[in-house]
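Have a think about this chain, tokens included, and walk me through the fold.
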Amino acid sequence: MAGTRSQTIDALKGIAILIVMLGHVLSWNHMEDDYLYDAIKVIQMPLFILVSGYLCGIGRPVKTWADYGRVLKKRALAYLVPFFFWIILQHPLTAVSNIAETLFALDKGLWFLMTLFLLNGMLYTAQLLGALSGRWEKPVFWLVYLGLAAFVVLETLLGWEFLSPGLTRLYLPFYLTGYLAGLHREWLARISGAFRSTCFGIALAGFLYLVIARDLLDVGSLLLLGQQILSSFLGCYVVIYLVSLWKMGKGKDFAAWLGGYTLEIYVLHFHFATVLNQGRTYELYTWQGALFVLASFAVMSLITGAIIFVTKKLPLLDFLLYGKLPQRNRQGH
């Protein structure tokens, strides 16, 4: 991920959202299988979290209370406004009770937004306290960050459900890995192409083995959870490596352009995953099933794109639905 954000990182986000969309077409139409769907499931959200952590790693670190307030405000507007507004939009008559219910079970709503906000908040808090400690910056950063991580693990062990700490715990390794990759991107850029290629071959072989031979959605024990996390890292590396090799051109330009609308697509697309479903169940590995998946994906994409195009013309909806401030206000934050 050592490339520039303007192309490779945004293209990676674009590929990630396409993977998410395909996965939702399969799941919402009850076409999950033990191979393709498992592969999608273990890659889609870890890849997004990795990229988010990387962008934090290449960004300006938090050094002062002013920086801390500024960046948390920015993240709250971007993530929490759409998180809460979509609950209100979908449950206007019971908004308060549904918000309360969702805060104790984030996967009832747009969990990704709240979980990403929490992961950002943990890191920025560690950055701030590390910077304020002066020459002890790095030790204090790790003391605070690992302490917060330990608290999240403790929450899960005690069975606490507020803000679904299990989700934060699950995705924390991916966010931290992305952050460290961004922080040390110059060192990573010096790794030889031959070594990268060897790692790619190992990752691809390991990922394919796990997808074919194992049930990656079973996380009933720590061993099985570790197996899923390993498969996620391997699969993410495979995608990252392939995108990094992708030469400049219309295809990569399109993926990068799409990557600029990942949040908009994320909050909208799944509502239209079953538009073509007339109550019939399709087998994925048949020509009828494959055609249905392609048609459903195309229709879902067209409807999603049309809604994004219209709603982004209205600044208030752009803010409430997607957490996007008008450009002039964005620059001030």
User: Anything to note?
Assistant: The radius of gyration is 20 Å.
